[in-house]
Write a structure and sequence with these properties.
Length: 388
């Protein structure tokens, strides 16, 4: 039996309960805006989950849970071979046992599902007999236990909201906290967060940097605030002006696009020699009319773009549409050249280039995560490259 609806009229616990009591098998797809999560069931039991949110990636969750450092994970990703999953590579490199990977996958399923309990609306569609992706390692979780924990988290979230300040608030450790007793009791999570906060940090940044999940992090922060160990800092003037931020954003976009375009050009020229210049030029000439913001005033006939011209173009664009125009034009241009690589050099080189570009973009974004998060760059590039 297939069915569909909206979470603003039918609650997630009710949907799960129907699937469990009816012992259904299939995939429950839930979407909101650009987010899509699919929960898979077999005989009413929850066995697998997928998500297009980068925060739900298996490696990201392992980092958030403190099971692996970001540095070690990046090394594994950098050496990732086409088709091999992160879990398999982690076992091959003796960083995890197979049993630990299975436990980690259960944890990933739970986190994906728990994140849905915060959605007040979203379209859902149960697709009968839809199965998980091939070679998926399946678990078996009782959805009723998940419902109980998810419902508890919702209730606690409402209480946490009463204690936590806005995300933009800078929190700092109290220099002279007033204690009612000589003894205080701190959890491991609270101690970890106190060390992370250091001399002061925005609430949003603390949540981003914490390897604990958002719920656990916020719960620990609320406890520290209530104990007086953590206090909101006095409002300070931002050191970076709007102009400086825009320049940093332009430089980040230039690194991503110009760097990767030049990398593609180098590979084409290296493999095809003199013919490579012709492939580059023809690709641009054929497609340039699709890019109204890439006119002849600042771009060569072969599609080569100079950094100073890029900045000039960036400044001329209306600020309210700047990001959209840059991203849409250059994503299309990047796609055109990747298609040219696939056509001229073959799928093997194309796949290698695509993998290296993904890693390159990830590394560039990590150089300025604050800007990236504010303008949603990571989500945009993850979506564009995932669709290829």
């Amino acid at each position: 039996m297939s069915f569909a609806g909206n979470l603003n009229t039918v609650s997630l616990p009710d949907v799960f309960q129907l699937i469990f009591t009816s012992k259904m098998t299939g995939g429950l797809k839930i979407t909101k805006d650009k987010d899509e999560k699919i929960i898979y069931f077999k005989g009413g039991m929850l066995v697998f989950a997928t998500s297009n949110d980068s925060q739900d990636l298996f490696g990201t969750i392992l980092v958030k849970k403190g099971r692996i450092s970001r540095e070690d994970l990046n090394k594994v990703i950098a050496g990732q071979q086409s088709g091999k999953k992160i879990g398999t590579l982690l076992v091959e490199k003796n960083l995890f046992t197979r049993e630990e990977i299975i436990e980690g996958l259960k944890m990933q399923i739970e986190e994906i599902v728990y994140s849905l309990f915060g959605w007040k609306d979203g379209l859902f569609d149960f697709l009968q007999d839809k199965t998980p992706p091939p070679d998926s390692i399946l678990s078996e979780l009782n959805p009723m236990n998940i419902i109980m924990e998810g419902t508890r988290r919702i209730d606690e979230w409402e209480e946490l909201k009463k204690v936590l300040p806005p995300d933009s608030t800078i929190l700092e450790l109290a220099r002279d906290p007033a204690f009612k007793t000589d003894e205080i009791h701190l959890t491991k999570n609270e101690i970890i967060l106190m060390a992370l906060i250091g001399s002061g940090k925005k609430l949003s940044k603390i949540i981003e940097d914490s390897y604990l999940d958002r719920f656990i992090t916020c719960k620990a922060l609320a406890n520290l605030l209530q104990q007086g160990l953590l206090i909101p800092a006095k409002e300070v003037v931002e050191e970076k002006t709007v102009e400086m931020e825009q320049k940093a954003l332009a430089e980040l976009l230039a690194q991503i696009y110009l760097g990767n375009l030049n990398y593609i050009f180098e590979n084409i020229k290296e493999k095809l020699g003199g013919k490579g210049h012709k492939v580059i030029s023809e690709t641009f000439q054929i497609n340039k009319n699709y890019y109204p913001n890439l006119d002849k005033n600042f771009i060569g006939d072969d599609g080569q773009i100079r950094f100073d011209f890029f900045l000039e173009m960036y400044k001329k664009l209306p600020e309210e549409a700047r990001i959209w125009k840059i991203v849409s034009n250059f994503n299309s241009l990047l796609n055109d050249y990747l298609n040219a690589v696939n056509k001229s050099l073959g799928s093997k080189i194309y796949k290698r280039l695509l993998s290296e570009i993904r890693i390159n973009i990830h590394n560039i974004i990590n150089q300025n995560r604050q800007i990236s998060v504010k303008y949603g760059l990571e989500e945009e590039f993850t979506r564009i490259l995932r669709d290829r």
